[in-house]
Amino acid sequence: MLNTIDQIFIKAKQIILDILSPFLPEWMMILISIFIVIVTLCVFGPVVMMYLTLLERKFIGRMQNRYGPNRCGIFGLLQPLSDGIKMFTKEDIVPQKADPFAHFLGPITVIIPSLLVFSVIPFGRNMIPSDLSIGILFFFAVASTSTLWIFTAAWGSRNKFSLLGGMRAVAQMVSYEIPMLLSIVPALLVVGSFSTVAIVNAQEGLQWFVFTPWGLVGFILFFLTGVAEVNRCPFDLPEGESEIIAGFHTEYSGMKFALFYMAEYMNAFSVSALVTTVYLGGWQGPILPSWLWFFAKTFVLISIMMWFRGTFPRMRVDQLMGFAWRGLLPLAFINLLAAALWVHLSFPLNDILSFCILTVSVLMIYVANRKVAPKKRIYKYAYE
Amino acid sequence: MTLFQFLATTAFYAAMLGILIAAALCVTVRNLFHSAVFLAFTLIGIAMLYFFLQAEFIAAMQILLYVGAIMTLIVFAVMLTSRMGNPAVPQSFKNKKIVFLPLGLVGFILISAILKTPWETSEPQTAVNAVTLGKALMNQYVFPFEVVSLVLLVALIGAIVIARSE
């Protein structure tokens, strides 16, 4: 029974294929089995995005002591649909001075990487769209292209606020990409594979990487850099509305704006999903079906992102860059060393040693980054 | 299975045609930023070819390094060129004749090298995966690897020194 629920989506796909197989030739069946996965992902992404917007508005509403949307359907459950209809019927405004090619290209291409990265995420046991041997690298490679399209949109708008937002996006993504890649290397080192499936399989039976000293540090590093990489609060400088209106999507309206919005929420989901996969054991967990575990963990991480948004003020540009280069980057390097020692030594010693190294280095980085306020001068003879 | 193979071959040639069109547009488009975008399309297309040939590691590296890093560098160049955003500034092919000679020479050398290389492989070769590549870097090619890392370190320190002196 439990096994059936666990494999319910795999079974559903198999049943569809079994119904069709007597009527269609073999090559058609291969194409259909590919198309089922692609269509599922292309529907899944936008649907997740729509309900994440509702969840976020509800969450932030509760944090700010108000209800959030509650007029469309029970608990406002139809709100995302009505928002979608509104977005589709709005006028698409292209500024007169804008570069039509880049203005058109930006929102369309920005959505493609956010949909593509879903293909290497293991949603449950045997539930991965394509088990690439370089899954993690594929994720980072594809996700890194979105910077270019954000800048294309910003440049094509020919608006100085858009361009400022685009510049900020590029600078931020370039600086946070390095600690992000380095924070995931310890897990790759321990598993010895780039495949997301192999990483999840290595954390079987509550041996999630987050329970090891290097895993905890890696989890925090990866989650923070992930939040920065998808431009969410407190790292949402590219669209800081108090300074540069709406950043790179200032000049967009209607469905083009909705595409940016969609890409942002889908990126938030996929980064949370990858953090879950690498450090929180993916779909591993007792009793409940595997996909339920996966979505529960992912939604906890997304809720933490929303909690951040309800709590922290936006960082300044220099704070943002300093945080990445002086705080996260050295810690990521030391974490790599701690993970290597953890693999090399045997059980009681490795935990203790890597814990000590990481504690000392966190303290040292904290002390080294402390603000040096000059001592207050006392002017002895100034007023005489 | 022949129809399936036919479809796959067609897709492969269509991708190559797309790459050639993007590359041609990259060098003929008037606007520099547009040509940068077409360059990105060309590079992504080449990565797609690598994926098609099951060299997944090289494909991911192609996207990560060329589209992720080098295109970002080009974007920085665009940001730092103040007149790039202004459509009033004419962008012309004035220096076409001067450039023709060295480009023709390079093209000639490349084409003759391509024609001379024997391309037939007797048996399907296994694609190099990340594990063998890493082992080769740490055993057989450890000296060039260390030299490259030293060069990068020197470049890094040099950049910091240049940026620091006000």
TrEMBL record, chain A:
Superkingdom field: Bacteria
Family annotation (Pfam families): NADHdh
A biological process term (GO) from this entry: aerobic respiration
A Gene Ontology cellular-component term: plasma membrane
Reaction catalyzed: a quinone + NADH + 5 H(+)(in) = a quinol + NAD(+) + 4 H(+)(out)
Enzyme class: translocase
Keywords: Cell membrane, Membrane, NAD, Quinone, Translocase, Transmembrane, Transmembrane helix, Ubiquinone
Subcellular location: Cell membrane; Membrane
Membrane topology, record value: Multi-pass membrane protein
Family, per entry: Belongs to the complex I subunit 1 family.
Biological role: NDH-1 shuttles electrons from NADH, via FMN and iron-sulfur (Fe-S) centers, to quinones in the respiratory chain. The immediate electron acceptor for the enzyme in this species is believed to be ubiquinone. Couples the redox reaction to proton translocation (for every two electrons transferred, four hydrogen ions are translocated across the cytoplasmic membrane), and thus conserves the redox energy in a proton gradient. This subunit may bind ubiquinone.
Protein name in UniProt: NADH-quinone oxidoreductase subunit H
Organism: Candidatus Danuiimicrobium aquiferis
